[in-house]
Amino acid sequence: MEEVVNKVVITEEAQSDYESMFHRQMPKIDIKHEAEDFLENIRGSLFGYYLRAKYLDESLDRMLMLFFYKGKRFGRMQMWELKGVCRAEDWSELLEEEGQIRAWLNSPLEPEDDGDWVCDLRVAMERAQAERRDYDDEN
Description:
This protein has helices at residues 12-22, 28-41, 93-97, 100-105, 117-138; strands at residues 5-10, 50-57, 62-74, 77-87.
């Protein structure tokens, strides 16, 4: 059986979570190494595409919760994306079950501008009104 090498990629979103909470630079190298060691130690238990892990940030003397999504696999190398970081006490099973954690993890730092829905609705209503007038004029 081929041995898998787990690698962690820290996303901009996770880095932003950390830096906005603690107003300091994220210790990316420490977190990356600890997370890869964690993944190595639970090798047989890596089911699914998502996992979370507690992490003691010694520089803060604080327990954090790290959220990972399984990324692409390149040969023997399995990538894991660190998508979010929060204080361990801020996480709850209820938030997880209600989908609030997933919604937060899947929220981009800079969401795409989908336009103004009010303006779009107004244009659609005016178009429908014009089509009705055209239909009435033809009949």
